[in-house]
Design a protein that fits this description.
mainly alpha; two-stranded antiparallel sheet; 2 strands; 65% helix; globular
Length: 136
């Protein structure tokens, strides 16, 4: 098993848990990292929860790119992605500190990773078989 077969989206799961469970409260998600005045006169406030979601989106993008490759490590990656999703689901349902919109969106991203990974993997495998089948 290579390092490539580990789903990178698990980092978002670990990041959330590290921030929230170490602090012991979900209030830390509302802490502003920075504020920018906008031309409209409003102020854009970027919070810790926003950072977690942003990191999750980048990791989801990386996982979707990884899903386009066919190899034995991709099968392990898909299986481990399912494990990460199940862990997120269990934590969301059972841990009071995970009952936030930020964690819900991390969990949804892991679900998208699972479904998209299998869907893209099947489509790529069919294309590879169609290309390979015409060589005979």
């Amino acid at each position: 098993m290579s390092l490539r077969s580990i789903p990178s989206i698990v980092l978002a799961f670990i990041l959330y848990n590290a921030i929230v469970f170490v602090s012991g409260t979900t209030e830390v998600l509302n802490n502003a990292l920075f504020e920018l005045p906008m031309l409209s006169g409003g102020t854009w406030r970027f919070e810790v929860g926003d950072l977690i979601i942003l990191v999750t989106l980048f990791l989801l993008f990386a996982e979707l790119i990884k899903a386009t490759y066919t190899s034995t490590s991709s099968l392990v990656d898909h299986g481990l992605s399912m494990v990460v999703f199940v862990a997120c689901l269990v934590e969301f349902l059972l841990a009071p500190l995970a009952a936030t919109s930020t964690f819900f969106l991390v969990m949804v991203a892991t679900a998208i990773d699972v479904v998209a990974g299998f869907t893209i993997g099947i489509r790529v495998a069919r294309r590879d078989l169609a290309i390979g089948g015409g060589i005979d």
